Amino acid sequence: MRRVTLIPGDGTGPEIVEAGRRVIEASGAPIDWEVMEAGAEVMERTGTPLPEEVLESIRRNRVALKGPITTPIGSGFRSINVALRMELDLYANLRPARTIEGVKAPYRDIDLVVVRENTEDLYSGIERRVGEDRAESIKVITRRASERVVRFAFEYARREGRSKVTAVHKANILKYTDGLFLETARRVAEEYTDIEFEDRIVDNMAMQLVQKPWLYDVLVMPNLYGDIISDLCAGLVGGLGVAPSGNFGEEIAVFEPVHGSAPKYTGMNKVNPTAFILSGVLMLRHLGEVEAADRVFRAVCEVIREGREVTYDLGGEAGTSQMADAIIRKMG
Ligand code: NAD
Question: What's residue 114's pLDDT?
Fold first, then answer.
């Protein structure tokens, strides 16, 4: 049995995590869950939204699967999701965007991967209010973080047989910060002569992804652009309901859907469990459970293609748990 930390999260998190857990168990993968609570409710009970025992569990098991966690806007505690990535030094966030037949989407045949830097940039939390009418935030870019995330993108491209890496930046304006990111990316690219390398300015990248997404393959970029561009890519293939992700450090990996806790649907058994289930597929592959991963992926695709037992965002009327039941039935 392989022990994995399971974090249900809050809002709609516990519903999708329960549905996804059942699907992953039905795949036959030998997973032993260690359930750990984090989020707003834990904050009320224990005084911290991210108890040390959660981090200890992830460090011990080296793999975690998590549901979304709510972050209050503008005040209150810092994002637990950001804190978790920083505490565990999960420096690369992998967000694949791939067409799934049957999902209503503006494009077909999309197969993009966004690699987002996960530890610095405007997420460093160095922000202050200067008097009533001014606020400042500091963007941090280091050679070390840039180098390891770009290297991660190239290693991923090589391992997955992909042909091109595109570095995304705004170095024409942010000459020092994004300039350093781009300079570092170019230097790392010289070591990977088997993979094509190019760069794009982020605003142009946004337009190109809408006009000709098929020209791109693996995209690597600083934290904030990664956050935005990966949602754009999720939109190309049908939205947040089907967008999975993995956060990777040297030894630890945490898998989670791209979407948040969709609090307005809490307790309604309504939201789509697919993004969480596909995050579980990424996790199973990472654990070497390739057959179980393929089994889950095929079953998800079949249920979506048939379109009968899918959630509202995919045009159906099934609830979170009914869609999971349908996926489990497909696996036989
Ligand atoms: P959200 O992703 O929770 O929801 C945006 C909208 O997308 C929802 O209203 C819903 O219409 C749709 N949606 C999201 N997930 C869906 C699903 N599984 N199935 C169907 N439709 C779905 O984004 P938000 O409203 O900006 O954020 C809500 C909270 O989640 C915030 O507190 C935010 O900070 C947090 N958040 C957490 C994470 C994370 O845990 N990694 C990521 C993003 C946002």
Answer: 98
